[in-house]
Design goal:
The relative contact order is 0.20. The chain has a five-stranded antiparallel β-sheet. Strands 2-7 form a two-stranded antiparallel sheet. The protein has a single domain, classed as Thiol Ester Dehydrase, Chain A. The radius of gyration is 16 Å and the shape is globular. The protein has three helices and seven strands; from the N terminus they run E-H-H-E-E-E-E-E-E-H. By secondary structure, the chain is α+β, with helices and mostly antiparallel strands. Strand 4 and strand 5 form a beta hairpin. The longest helix is centred in the last third of the chain and has 26 residues.
């Protein structure tokens, strides 16, 4: 996987039925996204505070495969990919006890923060996407070699 993020589900993440509220899982995915940017050397304060460019989410979806409860230890694997000169998408796989419990997608578009017009992705995001693409390809090659062995 490209980037992994560990998170324990908190009581505040759950709804009256005791399971993770759907919007809170997207929030957990966004935490993983932020941590991935941070680990790649992108300064989060600069990125989110008075930026010249923005990356609003234009599409989001979540598929819940099993209930997620308070106290569950989650592993969020995120796999970002460039899907155009001004867009990227992040696929998330959320695991609990080595079982996929949910999958999510967020699609982001790059805009000029002042004019709100689309613009090409900046260099730091292109590098982040490229680094993750290479890591995903390397992991897939390792997995293929294990199957052949």
């Amino acid at each position: 996987m490209s980037f992994s993020y560990h998170r324990t589900v908190r009581f505040q993440d759950t709804d009256a039925a005791g399971v993770v509220y759907f919007a809170n899982l997207l929030s957990i995915c966004h935490e993983a996204y932020e941590e991935s940017l941070n680990k790649s050397g992108i300064n989060l304060k600069d990125f989110f505070t008075h930026p010249q460019v923005g990356f609003p989410i234009v599409h989001a979806s979540v598929d819940f495969l099993r209930p997620i409860f308070c106290g569950d230890k989650l592993l969020v694997n995120l796999m970002p990919q460039k899907i155009g000169t001004e867009k990227f998408e992040i696929n998330y796989e959320i695991f609990s006890s080595d079982v996929v419990v949910a999958k999510a997608i967020t699609r982001h578009v790059c805009i000029d923060a002042n004019t709100r017009n689309k613009q090409a992705l900046p260099t730091n995001i292109i590098h982040w996407l490229e680094r993750n693409r290479r890591e995903i390809e390397e992991a897939e090659r390792r997995k293929a070699r294990e199957v052949i062995s």
